[in-house]
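Entry:
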Amino acid sequence: MEGNVDAGRLGENITESYLKLVGYEVLRRNFRFGHLEIDIVARKDRCVAFIEVKTRRNRHYGSAVEAVDRGKIQNIRLAAEFFLASYAGILAADEYRIDLVALDVDDGAGFMKLRHLRGIA
């Protein structure tokens, strides 16, 4: 289990670096609302993205993209609604969306594939 936590943290760190590189401002990491969580809240221009980060170290259970189902998206949506209710006055945004950053890592081959899927819901 600890390996999964480490991989998740590493995936979030890589994603944060990627987002900054492509012009996003990271507003918050690991925002919690009860048992729900948003990995990263970021803004680019006047769009706020609620970003789920999925990291897979092997394909035994499918790719990182395949790991995000409707239930997970619904949970992110609920947490995003709470975030917006709490911070809407200071966000200065015209658009909101849910994104997925999927990282598929093959340590043995020294390979990583990062995919940023915008507006998955």
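The longest strand covers residues 95-106.
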